[in-house]
Design goal:
- By secondary structure, the chain is of the alpha+beta class.
- It has 3 domains: 45 residues, no CATH class; 294 residues, Thrombin, subunit H (Beta Barrel), CATH 2.40.10; 259 residues, no CATH class.
- The protein contains 27 helices and 20 strands.
- Strands 2, 3, 4, 5, 6, 7, 8, 9, 10 and 11 form a 10-stranded antiparallel sheet that branches.
- Strand 3 and strand 4 form a beta hairpin.
- Helix 12 packs across helix 16 and helix 12 packs across helix 20.
- It is globular, with a radius of gyration of 26 Å.
- The two termini are 46 Å apart.
- Catalyzes the removal of dipeptides from the N-terminus of oligopeptides.
- It holds the Pfam family Peptidase_S46.
- Its EC number is 3.4.14.-.
């Protein structure tokens, strides 16, 4: 049996052991005939069922129900636990955790959180030290490769020009101003007008953003940006991403995914904040309350079941196919050429995005999730019918969204052929270049769309063979779509196969770029492809964009409807930092229970069990430190906070707002948190603050950082 199957179903067995030998033991650990039948079905599905059936079968235990025979019922928790940091849900927190939340508690939380490019950070010392994840920092240091950064003193810290930090310095209620502006214009325009006025009045170096905070309230968030950010600690990638893509988005997980930054002022001095999170000396215990703050990343959670069905049947499969092509092409390239750090990074990003996309697709195909989404919409319909005022405001929103989805489905063949307008960073930059040339004269073309396409191209990092593979996949999709039109197919391919034609186009454009021009030649294969695709793609994209604009407006109204039907609004999108709450808690999986913590023992055991394979190899300094480390120290933890907020660098805090960990990302079940929140199994995986202290002391010998973070406290090493 292929040992990779063990990982596919999360069997707790080393990769080199034949899985079949462990099956009798696995059966003995299960309780009840229902579970045995479930495992037998899983084995049968893995060995004999098709890909979609396998995904569906594996998905059932991932997402629910909690026990066989449970009734599928949408719950208030489906919307998530995403609260305003300006007005936290004090009654809820008092009821659930027996704690009092006042304005000082919320202000300390707001002032200590940092907004970094694409992730979150937290101030953790009076000298501007900040904690985030290695992944957040490493994406800006591709040239660093696999070498760790350990600064023994501030002078040794490494500058990161591409990294900046935004710190929230002020919040103000602007509800009245927005309501006044709304008398003359739409809501979005009113918010923009108020934001523009406040920005004009702000001090230099301040940035103002106005965001809705629920129940009709609006808040102006004022940030100060710090451009001088330096790395004090960045672990070797082999330990921060231990296990590679196989281990990503899984739990139990052993990895040291942290980074320490220092924030400097424009005068070149370390930031001296009045607010920062002290690390907890004791860490967290199972069942302890945990809080986190960060930027919400669940823009699809308000969407209807019909909208998510379109993502399931059309959008996600196309994205998966594109990512598979890119990952396969990058692997082939790296197998035959000297791999540069940017190329390795591109492959890691593609594989992680592919794993995430597959998990989201699996979730939306899962019968339990689909039933829960349908129940959620029906619950809203009932709430609207009970309230005539809400029915008048929102009664037709779900039906209007369903009508748009029906229209989108009629354009499905065009979507599969032409793709999204920009295609994203994982698509073909050559295809985008051809579209860009063709769209130069388009009246609907905007500067922002041009900038987004150019930025995506700059991030592509594709070599010729990789770009050829991506374009060939696009040409094959176009060939299938245009097949009845033999003349169009003939000009598109010029008598060549899609792969041959793609190579010809890439070579021609490379030659043109070598001559100092980015324009598409007026003849030859590139011109022929652009001529065939151009008008057809423009027509499709104009239709698709029109539908998408209308859908976005309706989705915002749907989000308002869902909030209006609830006593406590849930804020799933926007740029303002939000609060989430939960507990340190394991969860059921694979017929057993995932523990709330993993320890350093597990890290070394996985390294041994996998025989030191490349993805599971430890850096030399971790090998040497093995005997010095207290291997019972917690290394990672899981908490039931909402992963839409608690992700990629968000702090994990106790009731006293002491740091107990840093969020790295969701477990595989939590990837579906983009659509709904299922607290039974969705978890945020983070690095435990005790593991951070142990590694700084025993592995890196970073005594100065230990003193700064923990006030000289060090783990007890007495016999």
């Amino acid at each position: 049996m292929d040992p990779r199957w063990c990982r596919a179903v999360r069997m707790p067995c080393p990769i080199h052991l034949p899985c079949l030998l462990l099956i009798p033991h696995w059966f003995m650990t299960l309780r009840g005939s229902a579970l045995i039948i479930g495992v037998a079905s899983l084995l049968w599905g893995g060995l004999g069922m098709g890909p979609e059936a396998q995904a569906q079968d594996r998905g059932a235990p991932r997402f629910g129900p909690a026990a066989p025979g449970d009734t599928v019922v949408a719950e208030a928790s489906d919307a998530g636990r995403i609260w305003s940091l300006v007005s936290p849900p004090a009654d809820r927190l008092a009821r659930r955790y027996g704690m009092e939340v006042d304005s000082a508690w919320a202000a300390h939380l707001r002032r200590s959180v940092l907004r970094l490019p694409g992730c979150t950070g937290a101030l953790v010392s009076a000298d501007g030290l900040a904690l985030t994840t290695a992944r957040c920092v490493g994406r800006h240091l591709n040239a660093q490769g696999d070498t760790a950064v350990v600064a023994a003193r501030p002078a040794d810290e490494r500058a990161v020009p591409a990294l900046h930090a935004d710190r929230l310095v002020r919040t103000s209620d602007v509800t009245a101003a927005v309501r006044t502006a709304r008398q003359d214009t739409a809501k979005a325009a009113a918010i923009s007008a108020v934001q523009g006025r406040l920005q004009a009045e702000a001090e230099a170096g301040r940035h103002v953003e106005v965001a809705a905070d629920g129940e009709g309230a609006y808040t102006a968030y004022t940030y100060r940006r710090y451009e001088d950010v330096r790395v004090a600690l960045l672990p070797d990638r082999r330990i921060s991403a231990f296990g590679g893509t196989d281990a990503a988005l899984t739990y139990p997980r052993s990895a040291f995914d942290v980074a320490l930054l220092r924030i400097y002022t424009s005068e070149g001095q370390p930031l001296a904040p009045n607010h920062f999170f002290d690390p907890s000396g004791q860490g967290a215990r199972p069942g302890d309350a945990v809080f986190s703050a960060g930027l919400p990343t669940a823009p699809h959670r308000a969407e209807s079941a019909a909208q998510l069905a379109t993502r399931r049947d059309l959008v996600l499969p196309a994205r998966r196919d594109r990512l598979e092509t890119r990952a396969q092409a990058l692997r082939a390239r790296l197998d035959t050429a000297e791999a540069s750090p940017p190329q390795r990074s591109a492959l890691r990003d593609a594989e992680r995005a592919l794993k995430q996309t597959r998990a989201r697709l699996e979730a939306l195909r899962n019968e339990y999730v689909r039933a829960r989404l349908a129940q959620r919409d029906e619950r809203l319909r009932r709430a609207l019918r009970r309230d005539p005022a809400l029915q008048r405001r929102f009664g037709g929103v779900l039906d209007s969204l369903a009508a748009i989805q029906n229209t989108k489905r009629t354009l499905g063949a065009g979507y599969r052929a032409f793709g999204a307008a920009e295609g994203g960073p994982h698509g073909s930059s050559t295809y985008r270049r051809l579209l860009r040339e063709e769209r130069q004269e388009s009246p609907t073309r905007t500067a922002s769309s041009h900038a987004s396409m150019t930025a995506a191209d700059s991030l592509q990092s594709s070599s010729g063979p990789v770009e050829t593979a991506l374009l060939a996949a696009r040409l094959e999709a176009l060939r299938r779509h245009l097949r009845p039109d033999t003349a169009a197919v003939g000009r598109l391919l010029g008598g060549q196969s899609p792969a041959e034609r793609a190579a010809s186009v890439v070579d021609q454009l490379a030659s043109a770029s070598g001559d100092g021009t980015d324009a598409v030649p007026t003849d030859g294969p590139a011109a022929d492809v652009a001529a065939v695709v151009g008008a057809r793609a423009r027509s499709f994209h104009e239709q698709w964009r029109g539908l998408t604009r209308a859908e976005r407006r309706l989705t915002r109204r749907l989000a308002d409807a869902r909030r209006a039907a609830r006593s406590a609004p849930v804020l799933t999108d926007g740029t303002a930092p939000r609060l989430t709450d939960g507990r340190v808690r394991g969860y059921p999986y694979n017929g057993t229970t995932a523990p709330p913590f993993t320890t350093v023992f597990g890290l070394y055991e996985q390294n041994r069990a996998f025989g030191g394979e490349t993805l599971w190899a430890l850096p030399e300094r971790w090998h040497k430190a093995g005997e010095r480390m207290d291997r019972s120290t917690p290394l990672t933890l899981v908490a039931s906070v909402d992963g839409a907020v608690s992700n990629d660098g968000a702090p994990l805090l106790n009731q006293s707002l002491e740091l107990v960990g840093v969020a790295a990302g969701p477990n595989i079940q939590g990837v579906a948190g983009a659509y709904l929140f299922l607290p039974e199994r969705m978890r945020t995986v983070g690095t435990d603050v005790r593991g951070l202290r142990e590694a700084l002391t025993a592995v890196y010998g970073a005594d100065a950082l230990v003193d700064e973070l923990f006030g000289g406290r060090s783990p007890d090493r007495s016999p």
